[in-house]
């Protein structure tokens, strides 16, 4: 009886909620048997009370002879014996300490680890404490599949801490946005209109390519991708490709940068005088037709105009009546104006002029004499000849 009373007295020294130090006696079957120092009372520390990872090996956490600080959870009395033990937890003690550390730290950025994809977001762990990051706060764009973040460590901002409700909310998105804002500010401070900068193709759209300049995405409009007309962005660049671009304009307030890729590459008009001259005869392809003529590509990226009057010696009402897009034609160069990026061409200059057209042209080119008025003789009738002053003024009284 005395021994049992001593046992009860020692047990009374241990209460649920106490933080105690215990020595590991044995480790077996995902649980460790411990003895609480200064009491002689035994306790049980299970794998579940060591870590949230249920697939972990308990031997990686505790070994026989180790001393651990644990939280007393509740008393357990054996059914068939008079032994009294306590269920203890190392994990919950660490969580309590973590809560104490978190109070008043809203707004701070901490490193957490994604542990499990849950409904509406991602469960994370910080110093043994379980937190939650809503799907809308994981990235700058809504994330539907949060599974890819499980096992990853990342920075997140503490948004809300309510220990009484075990409420711990964090935002990864705000960390990303703040870093992006700082990077944008630095990039804009270095950008200048007209400068040539390096970047990486971030994404492609139907209207152009977005280039990552190191925190700021600039747009190369489809018209600034190539010297060729009507090109597709994916036919010029690819995602991940490093390129050199020229800064056309900067709008820091709106966060927009306009870029040009074609401005960094030689244009088709560079040195065109050495490639093309008046009176040259070249082969070209009809690229497009208009009401006033046809544009014929004579060099890569250089289209010359065959005016409707230079298509044929015969009268042409509409260029579509005699030419078609894609048709190969021989043309004669009439004029090359590199400054204005204009080439004048002629098809009829290479064709034999029909006699009728030649005569008509000669007739039209012959200067016309001004019409001479017919000579008119004005003669007075005989009855009006030989009149005297008396005949004119005879009725006037003096």
TrEMBL record:
S1 motif domain sequence ranges: 17-74, 107-173, 194-262, 279-348
Keyword rRNA-binding among UniProt keywords: no
Region (Disordered): 352-386
Any one of the GO CC terms: cytosolic small ribosomal subunit
Residue ranges, compositional bias (Basic and acidic residues): 352-364
Gene name per UniProt: rpsA
Biological-process GO terms, alphabetical: translation
Family of this protein: Belongs to the bacterial ribosomal protein bS1 family.
Annotated PROSITE patterns: S1 (PS50126)
Name by which UniProt lists this protein: 30S ribosomal protein S1
SUPFAM superfamilies according to UniProt: Nucleic acid-binding proteins (SSF50249)
Highest taxon of source: Bacteria
InterPro entries: NA-bd_OB-fold, Ribos_protein_bS1-like, Ribosomal_protein_S1-like, S1_domain
Lineage: Bacteria, Bacillati, Bacillota, Bacilli, Lactobacillales
Keywords in alphabetical order: Repeat, Ribonucleoprotein, Ribosomal protein, RNA-binding
GO molecular function terms attached to this record: mRNA binding; structural constituent of ribosome
Keyword Repeat listed: yes
């Amino acid at each position: 009886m005395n021994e049992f009373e001593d046992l009860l007295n020692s047990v009374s020294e241990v209460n649920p909620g106490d933080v105690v130090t215990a020595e590991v006696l044995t480790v077996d079957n995902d649980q460790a048997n411990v003895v609480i120092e200064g009491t002689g009372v035994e306790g049980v520390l299970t794998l579940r009370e060591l870590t949230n990872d249920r697939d972990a090996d308990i031997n990686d956490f505790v070994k026989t002879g180790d001393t651990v600080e644990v939280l007393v959870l509740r008393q357990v009395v054996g059914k068939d014996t008079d032994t009294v033990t306590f269920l203890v937890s190392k994990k919950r003690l660490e969580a309590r300490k973590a809560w104490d550390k978190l109070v008043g730290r809203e707004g701070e950025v901490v490193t957490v680890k994604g542990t499990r994809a849950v409904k509406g977001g991602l469960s994370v762990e910080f110093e043994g404490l379980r937190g939650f990051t809503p799907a809308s706060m994981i990235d700058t764009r809504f994330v539907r599949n949060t599974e890819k973040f499980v096992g990853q460590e990342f920075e997140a901002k503490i948004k809300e801490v309510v220990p009484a409700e075990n409420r711990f909310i964090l935002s990864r998105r705000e960390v990303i946005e703040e870093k992006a804002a700082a990077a944008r500010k630095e990039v804009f401070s270095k950008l200048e209109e007209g400068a040539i900068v390096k970047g990486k193709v971030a994404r492609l759209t139907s209207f152009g390519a977005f280039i990552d300049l190191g925190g700021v995405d600039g747009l190369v409009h489809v018209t600034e991708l190539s010297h060729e007309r009507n090109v597709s962005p994916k036919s010029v660049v690819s995602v991940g490709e490093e390129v050199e671009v020229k800064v056309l304009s900067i709008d820091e307030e709106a966060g927009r940068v306009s870029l040009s890729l074609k401005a960094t590459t030689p244009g088709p008009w560079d040195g065109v005088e050495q490639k093309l001259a008046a009176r040259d005869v070249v082969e070209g392809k009809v690229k497009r037709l208009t009401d006033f003529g046809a544009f014929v590509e004579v060099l890569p990226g250089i289209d010359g105009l065959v005016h409707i009057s230079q298509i044929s010696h015969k009268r042409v009402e509409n260029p579509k009546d005699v030419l078609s897009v894609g048709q190969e034609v021989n043309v004669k160069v009439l004029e090359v104006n590199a400054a204005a990026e204009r080439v004048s061409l002629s098809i009829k200059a290479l064709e034999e002029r029909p006699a009728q057209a030649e005569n008509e042209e000669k007739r039209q080119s012959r200067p016309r004499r001004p019409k001479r008025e017919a000579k008119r003789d004005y003669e007075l009738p005989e009855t009006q000849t030989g009149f005297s002053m008396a005949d004119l003024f005879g009725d006037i009284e003096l």
